[in-house]
Structures are given as structure tokens and as C-alpha cells.
Amino acid sequence: DVKVTQSSRYLVKRTGEKVFLECVQDMDHENMFWYRQDPGLGLRLIYFSYDVKMKEKGDIPEGYSVSREKKERFSLILESASTNQTSMYLCASSLFEQETQYFGPGTRLLVL
Amino acid sequence: TQLLEQSPQFLSIQEGENLTVYCNSSSVFSSLQWYRQEPGEGPVLLVTVVTGGEVKKLKRLTFQFGDARKDSSLHITAAQPGDTGLYLCAGPTSGTYKYIFGTGTRLKVLA
């Protein structure tokens, strides 16, 4: 079974803090994704990576950056957290382009 | 722009009833996925359909991919409270790594 894990289930941070969200997949998948999910807005793609050290912006990259130093790990970084970044963050991975995506359990982030 | 529209948005039914959820697009998809998401959790994959006209069954859940690969449906027979959750359809966009997700159907099954 594909397993995608996220480092934290719940996080509470203060405005202006630097926040790291970690995601690890154990199935040697090429592609990894970060989404945020908000009521009424559905899932929105922040960034994705199709190879180690490769990244591409999604639909809402502003205020975020990512890092993929190893194939199994994809990190989302909030450089200076703001209250409008309070959300559910979901990581996903897929084997190849256009293949099924598998999701982690999510990190619920609250920025005060 | 490829879009996936789901209907209904909300559904509240009694245990034992049947229901169908729809996922529609004007675009052709190479495959469609259905996920169920429970509150506070990530989406869990239920099924992938890839062939036009394909029907897949998962216990009381029946998934169908339209002949033209533009739509899909999820039918639940004799719904149970454990079926409660947000049902999402999703599919890959043409020529990119991106997926698009439907707006979701929030199902509540009352005991």
C-alpha cells in the first residue's frame, strides 16, 4: 500500500513565524504535490515537484516555497506565516504524470 | 479550462437508502478518480476508472465512467452511517502534471 505521511496533524503558529511542513512517501513516486483545502474553495494546488530538486508553481504559490532534496521527501515552507494561511494542508504523490494521486492525512495549521 | 462539477453538493439521507452522486465535465479525461474524505483527514482513494463505459464495484459502491469519458457516477446501495463524508472526483489535466478536483459532495447518513 502507498503510504504518505505528514510530519504534524495540527500546528499552531504566530504571525511572522517561519513554518515547515514535511511530507514523506514510501513508494518511490516521482511526483509530489502540496495542496491547501478551504471550505467553499476546494483543493488548490500550491506547488508540485516532478523530480528531485525540481519544482513548479501551482495555482496559489504566493507566500510559499518548497524543497525536494530527496525523492521521498517534499517540504512546504511558509516564509512568514500570515493569518490567511490558516488552512488544511494536504500532501500527495503519484508514480508518473497523470497517474492516480495518493494523499497524506493532512496538517491543520492555525496561524494566530 | 477543464472543470469537474459535482452534484448534489449536499445530501442527507437515512440509513438504508440508495443514492447517486454525479461528476460532470465538458472535457474528456484519460481517467477519473473518486475519493472519500472524512473530517480532519486526507482524501482516501476509492477507485480509478480509465475506460469509457467501465463499471467498478467496491462492496456497496458502484462507480461508472461515461462512454465518452466526460462524466462519472457513484452509486451507494443501502447507505450506512460509515459512508458519511466528502466525496471528491478528480482527474488529470491534459498534458500536465496537475489534477483538477470536483467541488465535492458532502454526504451525511443518519442512523
Short key terms for the protein model shown above:
heterodimer, A: about 110 residues, mainly beta, seven-stranded mixed β-sheet, four-stranded antiparallel β-sheet, about 0% helix, globular, B: mainly beta, six-stranded mixed β-sheet, five-stranded antiparallel β-sheet, 11 strands
In short:
The complex is a heterodimer of chains A (112) and B (111). With 112 residues, chain A is mainly β.
Note down, in words, how this protein is organized.
- The complex is a heterodimer of chains A (112) and B (111).
- With 112 residues, chain A is mostly beta strands.
- Helices cover 0% and strands 57% of the residues of chain A.
- Chain A has no helices and 11 strands.
- Chain A has strands at 4-6, 10-13, 19-25, 31-38, 42-51, 54-57, 64-70, 73-78, 87-94, 102-103, 107-111.
- In chain A, strands 2, 4, 5, 6, 9, 10 and 11 form a 7-stranded mixed beta sheet that branches.
- Chain A starts with a strand and ends with a strand.
- In chain A, 37% of the residues are buried.
- The model of chain A has no long low-confidence stretch (mean pLDDT 94).
- Chain B is mainly beta.
- Chain B has no helices and 11 strands.
- Chain B has strands spanning 5-7, 10-14, 19-24, 32-37, 44-49, 55-58, 61-65, 71-76, 85-92, 99-101, 105-110.
- In chain B, 33% of the residues are buried.
- The chains are: A mainly beta (112), B mainly beta (111).
- The A-B interface holds A 4, 31, 33, 42-43, 45, 48, 50, 56, 58, 90, 97-106, 108 and B 30-31, 33, 35, 40-45, 48, 88, 90, 92, 96-99, 101-104.
Instruction: Report the portion of residues of chain A in β strands.
Output: over 45%
Radius of gyration of chain A, in angstroms, nearest whole number: 13 Å
What global shape of chain A is seen?
Answer: globular
SSE sequence of chain A, one letter per element: EEEEEEEEEEE
Major sheet of chain B, described briefly?
Answer: 6 strands, mixed
Helix content of chain A: under 10%
Oligomer: heterodimer
Structural class of chain A: mainly beta
Number-wise, the strands of chain B total: 11
Strand content of chain B: over 45%
* Arithmetic mean of pLDDT of chain B: 94
Counted by DSSP, the helix tally of chain B is 0
* Overall helicity of chain B: under 10%
Distance between the termini of chain B: 41 Å
